[in-house]
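Internal ticket - ligand job 227, ribulose-5-phosphate:
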Amino acid sequence: MEQEKAKKAAAEAAAKLIEPNTVVGLGTGSTAVYFIEALARRVETEGFAIKAAVASSRRSAEQAHQLGLPVKDLGDVFQVDLTVDGADEIDPQKRMIKGRGGAHVREKILASSSGEMVVIADETKLVERLGVGVLPVEIVGYGAPSTRVKVENLGYRSSWRQSPDGSLFLTDNGNLLLDLSFEEPLSHPEEVHEELIHIPGVVDTGFFFQIAGRILIGRPNGTVEIR
Ligand code: 5RP
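stdout (structure tokens):
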């Protein structure tokens, strides 16, 4: 599929940015899966070693471990040199929405502990304004229905994220995800974040502001644009 080729191109270009003996942060999602594969391939075929790989989810940790990467906890390394992660929406100011893969809280902690967050994506992720699709918001289970009412009283429609079997989706942190939708894309996403983040029970929104470093946009013909 064309989109998969584009994701792979971005992921492979990101793997080439990794320096030997560094601590690498691993994102979550289908584009991050390609990055983890490409990084493991470099380590296996180029006699190239990294100091550690720190994952933003159990899924990514498991994949990295199975491919032989030296997985460590963030608490054991404290500082990550470079994290590579995907995104759901990216605007021209490099503001992003993340978390449709369910891991934005850990992804934000990891990115903020990294020298640089390199974002890998295909061009379908580029938007003029954020809020085209849903905004994931992680919510503590205790009192979750009442937290949702407070969110909806701000004028946003929402639905609880479900797992494929129809049960409520739980993040790696044991919390719920509320997916917010907007009538139209947002002119001031920072204001929306600010309203939501102060509601008790909201852990964090999927907005990423001033965190992205280089953005690698893959194209189906294998070329990659760096922004
Ligand atoms: C997971 C994320 C992902 O990075 C985001 O959803 C992009 O995923 P994909 O690479 O599968 O399109 O934020 O929480």
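Auto-summary: Residues 151 and 185 are 18 Å apart (CA to CA). The mean pLDDT is 97.
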